[in-house]
């Protein structure tokens, strides 16, 4: 069964929600931040679903209105109709409340969507078969209570000419006592009786008059769609006048009967009236709902027809000229066809900047999805809109979500006895040792005591290389006040053990930071990669940094991904160092590929051959280079 | 040839109409949206994700209604701009010399725009871009009173630095709204102020010592840049919020809770700004 359904605006306001079971709001928050903001795709989901704490979430977006429709249900269930529900609810919601949503400077809208939603769920469940039983029972149960409080139904319904839609509470008309037989409205959302109770403007609506007016406007629009409904109003009595008479009648019934009998008596009479007037069989409580279903179907058909009409007008010749004009002036609603060409150009551009094909395609796809249905700004061509969107998307990818202030973190850790441990991993020959010594130089300038652990026990010359670095750094930092030492145990030993010993040694000697150099390994070699898990367990690094070359192309995505998953469950990379950035000019696409593949930020850029050629990433600079 | 130069009435009419209407249409096309919003002051709501920015924004919109229920919120992705009104019971500073019994004062509701910004770390550039826009009368930086201040401080540092860089322009007020102070683990506003100041002191020190970023071009730019990136007065020592007054930023700390409807302090602050 569905647990929860929410309509959320992109600005974060829940416009409408329906909860069948308590769902932690953090679940939907996680969906928004993971899928929509950080663009993390869960493996195998193909952007169709998202799993979080035993829930599965599916969603639809309406870019033109800035809406997200989210359905939450338990992962244990396999609900086949969720997609259809989302599609139809999206259409319905927009058909009903589109006018209200278009207004600027509004936060909430007046919506009484519950009944429409219920009717859709019921229909789809019926189609799927099975779980509808509980609901049907609910309806039957609700029927009696419906009769109990029935008096307002004919009156208000005729007044509004449809059941369950937001009825305006007329101050003049007598309102029969709802309280008599009505349990609290929210206790059983499925009963038709509640429909009217909910129809009154809720205290939520701040802009009482304004909102209601808008609502009425929306309704008049709807009436055109729901023609079948009018039939029954018309063939009964003259419509506008008799709502008074019926209300009078109900009032008379109230005065005649005693308080307890009255509801029953009323119910009997009312059933009679309803059958007569509506001319529909009362098989269960469904007849009220049937009307609603018809209206819903009419609305959906209308929405479909609108879509088709839009498509057909777009293809005309005259429309072509108009579209061209629109392209110059702006205010054009973007469609998939419009975006095809500029998107292909953008993809080419990104590929030329050395962004891995996989990453480039995904960036373009998400941007395209977010643009379809949006309007271009004044005097903005499609190309410019696409370019701006790609730019924003790249900026979003490169912006880190956590603090990258290494100095502050080390400073915070200083009070504890354990040193701050940084280990550096990467493919062969990308510059692990070089970047390690650059970081070491930077730390020494800030007067830290640094221990370098030589854990590359595999490649001949690796320890000697670090020894040279350590000697140079020692000389350079003598005046600055930093202390650096090398911890080495020769070749052939287990790297994880050496790393652990080095950390213990540093703890005893009072070092602030331990930098661990590891052997380079091919990312698709299982045997070499598997030793990293043990390494992470033994050395327990505070930061695991991966060095990646800016020169690498398509392989970057796989490199980042494999290294990220090599440290076992619960441990991943903490940052990238992109080396050799000075050798590629403006083709720094590797940055995008690696960050996009893993969501892990770039900590440093290597920009030269000297110790001080280490930089932090300036995202605006990078995006500018990528878009140039 | 003759037919081109000889005047004909329909063509004349069409031409006149075109000449008259095209500028008018263009005017409406361009200025329609901006004209209405121009005269009303604007307040920005910033702060980390999950601190209650959108709820606060909605609360201000509900405004005068007591006990109004604020809609539920989720993580924001875009800005939310709402037109809000200050109830007559709060005296705006611009009308402080008017008599309390002035009937026109009772009716008049101060209008302003409240702009909510997304707090997710990846979307903070949106808030920073909003900061640079004109007509911003004040900022509300919302903090979750029970949150870890080390993370909050970083964002606040960036905001203050951005404000410092725009110094010399109009004066701006900053309210640090310590939200959710009804929680058991919530800290009082004064304590939050002390913690944030301490944290910002450390941040600006580590920023000054940190590596240069890749955007800096030459060696010449570096020195000038360093001065710009230092928040508050030069020299060593603690950072104090009062230092910001020098650059035209007036910082106020007030506690409250949107969830409990306890926003009186914040509303009074708004009144003082208007």
Task: Estimate what percentage of residues of chain A fall within beta strands.
Answer: 5-15%
- The main sheet of chain B orders its strands as 2-3-1-4-5-6
The CATH topology of the largest domain in chain B: Rossmann fold
Gyration radius from CA atoms of chain B, angstroms = 24 Å
Mean pLDDT of chain A: 75
Question: Topology, please?
Answer:
The complex is a heterodimer of chains A (628) and B (274).
Chain A: E1 2-9, E2 14-19, H1 25-37, E3 50-52, E4 55-62, E5 67-74, H2 82-102, H3 114-128, H4 132-148, H5 152-160, H6 192-199, H7 208-225, H8 227-236, H9 239-256, H10 259-278, H11 286-314, H12 317-329, H13 336-352, H14 357-371, H15 382-398, H16 406-413, E6 420-426, H17 432-445, E7 449-454, H18 462-477, E8 483-487, H19 495-509, E9 513-517, H20 526-539, E10 543-549, H21 555-564, E11 575-579, H22 589-598, E12 602-606, E13 614-615, H23 619-627
Parallel strand pairs in A: 6-9, 6-10, 7-8, 7-9, 10-11, 11-12
Antiparallel strand pairs in A: 1-2, 1-5, 3-4, 4-5, 12-13
Helix pairs in contact in A: 2-3, 2-7, 2-11, 3-11, 5-9, 9-10, 13-14, 13-15, 14-15, 15-23, 17-18, 19-20, 21-22
Chain B: H1 2-5, H2 9-37, E1 42-46, H3 53-62, E2 80-86, H4 103-107, E3 110-116, H5 124-131, E4 136-144, H6 149-165, E5 172-179, H7 189-209, H8 220-228, E6 249-255, H9 264-273
Parallel strand pairs in B: 1-3, 1-4, 4-5, 5-6
Antiparallel strand pairs in B: 2-3
Helix pairs in contact in B: 6-7
């Amino acid at each position: 069964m569905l647990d929860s359904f929410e309509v959320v605006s992109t600005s974060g306001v829940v416009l409408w929600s329906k909860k069948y079971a308590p769902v932690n709001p953090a679940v939907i928050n996680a969906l928004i931040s993971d899928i929509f903001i950080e663009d993390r795709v869960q493996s195998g989901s193909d952007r169709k679903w998202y799993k979080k704490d035993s829930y599965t979430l599916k969603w639809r977006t309406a870019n033109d209105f800035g809406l997200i429709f989210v359905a939450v249900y338990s992962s244990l269930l396999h609900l086949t109709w969720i997609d259809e529900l989302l599609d139809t609810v999206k259409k319905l919601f927009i058909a009903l409340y589109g006018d209200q949503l278009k207004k600027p400077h509004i936060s909430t809208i007046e919506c009484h969507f519950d009944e429409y939603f219920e009717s859709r769920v019921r229909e789809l469940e019926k189609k799927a078969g099975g779980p509808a039983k509980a609901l049907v029972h609910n309806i039957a149960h609700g029927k009696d209570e419906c009769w109990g409080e029935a008096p307002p139904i004919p009156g208000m319904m005729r007044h509004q000419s449809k059941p369950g839609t937001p009825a305006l509470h007329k101050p003049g008309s007598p309102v029969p006592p709802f309280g008599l037989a009505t349990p609290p409205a929210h206790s059983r959302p499925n009963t038709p009786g509640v429909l009217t109770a909910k129809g009154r403007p809720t205290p939520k609506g701040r802009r009482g008059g304004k909102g209601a007016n808008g609502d009425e406007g929306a309704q008049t629009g709807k009436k055109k769609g729901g023609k079948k409904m009018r039939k029954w109003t018309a063939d009964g009595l003259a419509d506008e006048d008799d709502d008074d008479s019926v209300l009078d009648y109900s009032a008379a019934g109230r005065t005649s009967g005693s308080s307890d009998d009255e509801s029953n008596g009323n119910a009997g009479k009312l059933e009679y009236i309803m059958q007569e007037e509506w001319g529909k069989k009362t098989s269960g409580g469904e007849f009220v709902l049937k009307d609603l279903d018809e209206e819903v179907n009419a609305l959906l058909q209308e929405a479909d027809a609108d879509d088709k009409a839009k498509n057909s007008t777009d293809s005309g010749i005259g429309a072509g000229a108009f579209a061209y004009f629109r392209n110059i002036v702006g205010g054009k609603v973007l469609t998939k066809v419009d975006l095809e060409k500029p998107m292909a150009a953008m993809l080419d551009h990104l590929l030329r900047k050395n962004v891995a094909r996989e990453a480039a395609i995904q960036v373009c796809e998400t941007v395209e999805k977010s643009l379809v249905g949006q309007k271009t700004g004044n005097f903005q061509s499609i190309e410019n809109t696409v370019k701006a969107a790609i730019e924003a998307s790249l900026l979003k990818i490169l912006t880190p979500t956590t603090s990258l202030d290494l100095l502050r973190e080390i400073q915070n850790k200083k009070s504890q006895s354990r040193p701050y441990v940084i280990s550096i991993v990467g493919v062969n020959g990308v510059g692990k040792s070089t970047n390690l010594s650059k970081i070491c130089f930077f730390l020494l300038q800030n007067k830290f005591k640094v221990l370098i652990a030589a854990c590359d026990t595999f490649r001949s010359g690796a320890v000697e290389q670090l020894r040279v670095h350590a000697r140079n750094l020692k000389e350079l930092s003598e005046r600055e006040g930093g202390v650096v030492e090398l911890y080495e145990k020769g070749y052939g030993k287990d790297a994880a053990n050496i790393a652990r010993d080095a950390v213990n040694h540093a703890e005893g000697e009072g070092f602030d930071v331990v930098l661990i150099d590891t052997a380079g390994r091919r990312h698709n070699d299982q045997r070499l990669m598997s030793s990293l898990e043990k390494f992470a367990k033994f050395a327990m690094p505070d930061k695991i940094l991966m060095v990646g070359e800016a020169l690498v192309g398509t392989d970057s995505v796989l490199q980042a991904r494999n290294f990220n998953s090599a440290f076992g469950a619960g441990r991943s990379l903490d940052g990238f160092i992109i080396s050799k950035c000075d050798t590629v000019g403006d083709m720094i696409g590797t940055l995008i590929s690696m960050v996009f593949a893993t969501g892990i930020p770039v900590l440093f850029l290597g920009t030269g051959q000297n110790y001080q050629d280490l930089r932090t990433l300036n995202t605006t600079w990078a995006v500018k280079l990528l878009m140039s | 040839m003759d037919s081109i130069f000889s005047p004909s009435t329909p063509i004349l009419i069409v031409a006149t109409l075109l000449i008259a209407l095209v500028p008018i249409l263009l005017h409406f096309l361009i200025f329609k949206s901006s004209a209405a919003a121009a005269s009303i002051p604007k307040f920005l709501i910033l702060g980390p994700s999950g601190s209650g920015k959108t709820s606060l924004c909605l609360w201000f919109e509900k405004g005068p209604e007591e006990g109004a229920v604020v809609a539920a919120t989720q993580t924001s992705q875009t800005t939310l701009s709402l037109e809000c009104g200050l109830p007559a019971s709060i005296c705006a500073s611009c009308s402080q010399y008017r008599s309390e019994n002035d009937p026109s004062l009772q009716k008049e509701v101060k209008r302003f725009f409240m702009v909510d910004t997304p707090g997710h770390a990846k979307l903070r550039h949106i808030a920073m871009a909003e900061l640079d826009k004109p007509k911003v009368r004040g900022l509300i930086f919302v903090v979750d009173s029970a949150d870890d201040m080390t993370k909050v401080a970083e964002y606040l540092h960036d905001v203050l630095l951005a404000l410092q860089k725009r110094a010399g322009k109009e004066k701006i007020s900053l309210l640090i709204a310590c939200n959710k102070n009804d929680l058991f683990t919530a800290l009082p506003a004064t304590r939050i102020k002390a913690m944030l100041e301490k944290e910002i002191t450390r941040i600006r020190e580590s920023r000054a010592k940190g590596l240069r970023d890749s955007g800096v071009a030459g060696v010449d730019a570096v020195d000038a840049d360093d001065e710009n990136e230092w928040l508050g007065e030069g020299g060593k020592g603690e950072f104090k919020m009062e230092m910001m007054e020098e650059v035209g930023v007036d910082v106020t700390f007030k506690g409250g809770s949107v969830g409990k409807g306890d926003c009186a302090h914040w509303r009074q602050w708004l009144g003082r700004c208007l």
